[in-house]
Input
Amino acid sequence: MHEKISDFRSDTVTRPTEKMRKAMAEAVVGDDVLGDDPTVQKLESLAAEIAGKEAALFVPTGTMGNSIAVKCWTKELEEIIVEARSHIYNMESTHITFISGVTPRPIPSKRGCMDPEEVERNIRKPTVHTPRTSLICVENSHNNWSGAVVPLNNIKALRDVADKHGVRIHLDGARIFNASLASETPADRYAACADSVMFCLSKGLSAPIGSMLAGDASFIEKCRRLRKVLGGGMRQVGVLAAPGIIALTEMRERLKEDHDRARRLAEAIAPLPGIKCNPDHIKTNIIIFDLEHKKYTVPHFLHELAERGVWALATTGGIRFVTHKDIDDEDVDRAISVFRDMLS
Ligand code: TLP
Output
């Protein structure tokens, strides 16, 4: 095994910066469940302002943020529309049914963009046989579509459909700032099309933990209670909110570097034998590609990469490489040369 690892498994592996560690040590804290942690309050107002919403809530994980939003917007025995490859539907251990008691109705899409007419055809009214549709979930950037950006006009069109039928929209914006930078569209414009938005501090923004859920004040008040119900009421959690503030104020712009590196890696590996990847599809920090090579199965290929110090993951749709703060140009060069050695 190689001693230095180039870890492309996820942007969740990013370690907090020195400045974040210092801020953690020095954070002014209180009991956040009792509502008196000033650092959490500062983070929540900052997140609300960035999202263009009235209020925001600090939650331990993106999954908890999404599950609270679904629970808040739905009643048992209803149905929600999800994109077929979305994280909320495929990768969150079915909390939709377990916690909220609603059924997901998956809709196929073009690289994360659901056709608004198809969504409208799938909105159901309650009858003795059918559930009421109460929520549409959108993901941007779209993880399993290789970090694709769902354009603002698509989400606006979904908003029109939702309004026509009295349905809510939740935006899984785990990587909304990647989408925002790549499309030069401020995050609050995406959020304005949704009733609620979740975004992660612990991915490319490099905070050690935490996500934000934003929406109007009465929604967040309800969510605060649901967070407690789910065991997510945290006490002197200003120590974790402090790096979150740095994540939001100082780490958003640098995501551009991750996008450039992902594009460079995709362009270099796409022509190699066995790789099925269109570099033009790589707009943010995620590369997902198929491997059809006579020498390697996917697990064998990943094992051989790891033996050479390059870590990646298998995911829905293929092999995934994610660029992030702790991947530099040298890591990308190394990955490219390992690919060339193995496949050429
Ligand atoms: N994604 C993780 C893994 O779960 C796959 C990753 O490595 O990409 N929404 C989206 C779009 C996500 O990508 C993720 C995490 C979440 C929600 C959940 O966030 P966490 O991991 O904080 O629960």
